[in-house]
Design a protein that fits this description.
binds (3S,4R)-3-hydroxy-2-oxopiperidin-4-yl beta-D-xylopyranoside; Beta-xylanase; nine-stranded mixed β-sheet; alpha/beta
Length: about 280
């Protein structure tokens, strides 16, 4: 039923380069092979993120020069390894705080915003055909975070940095989808000539789950898919795990769960029909 696969963890920095200059592509290679054997495209997730970083990166004593070289080596090696086999890469993941300021992390504190251009240019050189994305959450609502993302894209374009898409993660709480805000924000990005995608859709429910909750969840999934369909330049919807069996939600948001279109027995939930109706 899917047209594309995305690894939840196996292409992240801690999985791919656990020690400096030691690369391990086993998990990533498995999912790419599965995609190719079953006729699906791949989203690569992700290259530069503050989370799931190995300690050697987080706690290294870097100068701007040495950290630039670390980023370039990581991005070049990973993107080259998969060159020609990845439709789009989340090159930069979650660069902003919700108030629109840049997130303090090892990359920003050493290199300021220049780390973003460094990673994007390196990725582009390694696979010129791959679409390069910046991905973040809470871009689904109007406010300072989407404003900051629009400014960042404008600055990158003005500087000639390769950037082709913005990912709207879309980790929603039940009943909190605003289709009008989502559409407005997507169109602010596509107006700049970039594509957009819903990259990590799930709709978490406060436990215990009722039948009414599942109907609301169906409506929420439908309206997200409808919104993407209504925006020319919204190229796809990725769900963040298809089954509640493997979803990250219950461990990350205690008291919440049941966020996916399939339940833990791999039976379809009403959300599944919501997705189908939204296209
Ligand atoms: C999550 C994975 O699903 C979990 O298995 C892992 O323990 C933590 O990361 N935003 C992102 C994703 O961009 O990479 C995160 O994935 C969820 C939030």
């Amino acid at each position: 039923m899917f047209g594309q696969l995305t690894p939840a963890n196996s292409m992240k920095w801690d999985a791919i380069e656990p020690e400096q200059n030691v690369f391990s592509f086993t998990g990533g290679d498995q999912i790419v092979a599965l995609a190719e054997a079953t006729g699906k495209i791949m989203r690569g997730h992700n290259l530069v993120w503050y989370n799931q970083l190995p300690n050697w990166v987080t706690y290294g004593s870097w100068t701007p020069e040495t950290l630039t070289s670390v980023i370039e080596t990581h991005v070049r090696t990973e993107v080259s390894h998969y060159a020609g086999r990845i439709y789009a890469w989340d090159v930069i993941n979650e660069p902003f705080n919700d108030n629109g300021t840049m997130r303090a992390n090892v990359f920003y504190s050493t290199l300021n915003t220049s780390y973003i251009g460094i990673a994007l240019r390196t990725a582009h050189a390694a696979d010129p055909k791959a679409k390069l994305y910046i991905n973040d959450y809470n871009l689904e609502y109007t406010g300072p975070k989407i404003d900051a993302m629009v400014r960042l894209v404008e600055d990158l374009l003005a500087a000639g940095v390769p950037i082709h898409g913005i990912g709207f993660e879309s980790h929603f709480i039940l009943g909190e989808v605003s289709p009008s805000q989502l559409q407005t924000n997507m169109e602010r990005i596509t107006a700049l000539g970039l594509e957009v995608a819903v990259t990590e859709l799930d709709v978490r429910i406060e436990l215990p789950v009722t039948d009414a909750d599942l109907e609301q969840q169906k409506a929420d999934y439908m309206s997200v898919v409808q919104t993407c369909s209504a925006v020319s330049g919204c190229v796809g919807v990725t769900v963040w795990d298809y089954t509640d069996k493997y979803s990250w939600i219950s461990s990350t948001f205690p008291g919440y769960g049941a966020a996916c279109p399939w339940d833990a027995n791999l039976d379809r939930k009403p959300a599944y029909d919501g997705i189908a109706m939204g296209f």
